[in-house]
Amino acid sequence: MMKKRNREHLMWEKGWAGHERAQLLRMAALSFGEKLRWLEETQDLIQVFKQKGLLLPQNKDSYR
Hints:
By secondary structure, the chain is mostly helical. It is about 45% helix and about 0% strand. The chain has one domain.
């Protein structure tokens, strides 16, 4: 569970302007255990996508 800390920087921003930087800051604020848990959950999600035949972008630039 996340420790109590100043969560002002964890608030969701409106619109896309600055979203990438805000997301990086949110991830940087997580503890190592939280980052590892996020990674494991993301890997599980990718496996579900693959099993269902959903296509994923081939590289990070495909998202832009």
